[in-house]
Write a structure and sequence with these properties.
Elements lengths: L4 E6 L5 E5 L3 H11 L3 H8 L6 H8 L16 H13 L3 E6 L3 H16 L7 E4 L12 H9 L2 E7 L6 H9 L3 E5 L15 E3 L16 H12 L6 H18 L7 H14 L6 H9 L11
Parallel strand pairs: 3-4, 3-5, 5-6, 6-7
Antiparallel strand pairs: 1-2
């Protein structure tokens, strides 16, 4: 059956509302098979979700079952090996991120996982450029200051994908640059001077199925790869999902994709539980969010 649009009237503001028709027999059979309301099923069918399994996955995605292997990002193994080497050799690591929610949640995820793996406060530092006095993104000044202070490795999140000049400057100064970003415009490619680039778009993400990860989602994938074989991998990733959900929603990435939906759904459920993260719990309290948070919260 070919879908058609039927005009049903105008709203108060003059907006014309149209309802897309679909195969009603399919709606009835799917509603019976899934136990979902006819209206819900009709909406899903009109969005191309037309089997009981697809409906279940869309409405109740599984965090570990519906997320992708982080090693599908081209430079992931290279980034993991370099970070583990830095921790083993007691090399200083500087994490530089954007100041928005996506950037700050990425900073927390990356700094936490590196410290758990052995990079204490003496090795891992976080830096957020001041948008008004330093401008957006990674600058040559930040790279040069990092070199002066003895950092051997810089990890960016939510910035860096356009930092071609800064990546080359880092290489000149003997600093390896790992970029975690998601902003690559169509037709552009990653900075050649970077040691590793983790981005779901461009040549780095050629084999990665989800092109709509937020930067905190990329940070989560890096944490996943770093924690492979670690006894605390599962609880840590579940905890990071809370931060990734907040950053993904705030950055308004597409949550129709299975992986993003799985992260956000799991993260929101986890946020309903008391958090050992006192700062996060304080934010929830100040915002008067209780019970099960929603994307609106």
């Amino acid at each position: 059956m070919t879908a058609t649009l039927t005009t049903v009237g105008r709203g108060i503001g003059g907006t014309r509302w149209s309802i897309e028709s679909c195969d009603e027999s399919l709606v009835k059979s799917l509603a019976a098979a899934t136990g979902e309301d006819d209206l819900m099923v009709r909406c899903l069918v009109n969005r191309g979700i037309k089997t009981p399994d697809a409906i279940k996955q869309f409405l109740a995605p599984d965090f570990f079952g519906h997320t992708h292997n982080p090693l599908l990002l081209r430079d992931m193994q290279r980034a993991v090996a370099r970070l583990k080497k830095a921790i083993e050799t007691r090399e200083r690591i500087l994490i530089v991120t954007d100041f928005d929610v996506d950037g700050t949640t990425s900073s927390v995820i990356l700094s936490t996982v590196l410290r758990v793996l052995g990079g204490g406060d003496d090795l891992v530092e976080q830096y957020v450029p001041d948008r008004f006095t330093e401008g957006y993104g990674l600058s040559a000044q930040i790279v040069e200051r990092a070199a002066e202070q003895g950092f051997g490795l810089i990890v960016t999140a939510d910035i860096g994908i356009k930092s071609h000049v800064e990546a080359l400057r880092a290489r000149q100064l003997g600093i390896d640059l790992i970029i975690c970003d998601h902003h690559l415009p169509d037709g552009d490619d990653v900075p050649a001077g970077a040691f590793a680039v983790l981005c779901p778009k461009g040549s780095s993400g050629t084999d990665y199925p989800n092109k709509h990860l937020a930067a905190c989602g990329v940070a989560l994938k890096l944490a996943d790869a770093l924690l492979e074989g670690h006894p605390k991998r599962v609880p840590m990733l579940e905890s990071f999902a809370k931060l990734t959900a907040i950053g993904s929603i705030a950055d308004m990435v597409d949550i129709a994709t299975g992986e993003n939906r799985a992260i956000v759904a799991h993260g929101l459920k986890a946020l309903a539980k008391p958090s050992p993260n006192h700062g996060l719990q304080a934010l929830l309290d100040i915002a008067k969010v209780s019970g099960q948070p929603t994307t609106y919260d």
